Amino acid sequence: MAEFSKRENRVYVGNLSYDVKDEDLKAFFEDNAEGQSLEVAYAEVLITPNGLSKGCGIVEFTSPESAQIAIESYSDRDLLGRPVFVREDREQEARFGANPTPSRTQQFTRGAYGAGPAQVAAPGTQLFIGNLPFQVGWQDLKDLFRQAGHVVRADVQFFPDGKSKGNGIVSFSSREDAQNAIELYHNYEFYGRPIEVREDKFANSPRPARTPYQAARRAPAGPGPVPAAAAPNPQIVTKNLPYSTTNEDLVDLFETTGDVKTAEILMDVRTQRSRGVGLVEFYSTAAASVAIEKFNGYIYGGRSLEIGFSARPHNFSPTAAIKVKAE
Fold this sequence. Notes:
Blueprint: E1 10-14, H1 22-30, E2 40-47, E3 53-61, H2 64-73, E4 78-79, E5 82-83, E6 85-88, H3 104-107, E7 112-113, E8 126-130, H4 138-145, E9 151-158, E10 164-172, H5 175-185, E11 189-190, E12 193-194, E13 196-199, H6 212-216, E14 235-239, H7 247-254, E15 260-267, E16 274-282, H8 285-295, E17 299-300, E18 303-304, E19 306-309, E20 321-322
Antiparallel strand pairs: 1-3, 1-6, 2-3, 4-5, 7-9, 8-10, 8-13, 9-10, 11-12, 14-16, 14-19, 15-16, 15-20, 17-18
Organism: Wallemia ichthyophaga
GO cellular component, one term: ribonucleoprotein complex
Pfam family, one: RRM_1
C-alpha cells in the first residue's frame, strides 16, 4: 500500500446508487479487474452531514497506472443497478498519510473550501448559487459542482447569528467549467429545492450595501425568481440524463411521443464525456410539447428528467442521431 496519498492515484466516481457503501466501491474495482492488477488503497462514498450518500465517491489506487485503467475501463459499468462514470480526481486534499483530509466534523463547519487570502477570480469563472437548502455547507457545494469541473473555492453565506442565507459562491479554474456548471445545475433539484446557478456579477467587487429597509425585511422562504420559459418550438432540452445515455437512446425514448428529427447528447469539450444534457428536435412543435408533457419528471435510468423547450436554436453536430421521417 502507498505510504502517502497522491492525487495522480485517485479517481472520482459519479452516478453511484445511494445504497453503495465504501466496501462496495472498493470491491467494484478490485473484483472486476479481469486480469488487470488493481489494488485499492482507499475508497470513500461522500456523505451529507446527516449521513446520506451524495451519489459519488473517491477511490485511490496504489499506482497512477491503476487509476488510468479505472478511468479507461470502468465508466458505464453497472454498480448496484446504475452505470457509474469515472474520471480523474481534481482536488488536492490527501485522503490518508501526510496532510490528511479534514474530519467530517471539520468539513461541515461554517468556513469555505479554498478559504484564505481573497484571490481575484478570472472573468466568468465565479458563480452565484441561490435558493440553497439551509442545511447545505461548503463541502456539499464543492462535492456537487466538482462534477462540472475543477472547483477552486466554494462558500456558503451566513447571517451573523450563524443561520444560512440560502446562497453561496463557487469559483472554477476556467470559464468553460463555470459554463458547464450553469448548463448542468441551473434549476437542479438539490435536497428538494431547485437551485439558481448564474455568473456572479459582483465577483471581485464589494456587494452593494443593504438599505435599512432591506436589512429589516426578511425575504419569504421558497424558490427564487423563475427564468422566463422559452417559447414553444420543435427543439427540447433534457437535463439530468444518466451519463451512459447515447444519441440513439434519446431517439428511442422520444419517438414514442412523435416523429424525432435528430437528437444529441452534449459532451464536455475537454473530457469528451457526457454532461448529462441532451437536445432533441422534432418535426413539429406539437410533438415537442407532447414530449415535455409526458416525460418531464419521468424516471429514466434512476434519474428524474428535467425537460423544457430549448431557449435558443441548437446546431446539431455531424455525429448527432438522425431519424428519417416515415412517409
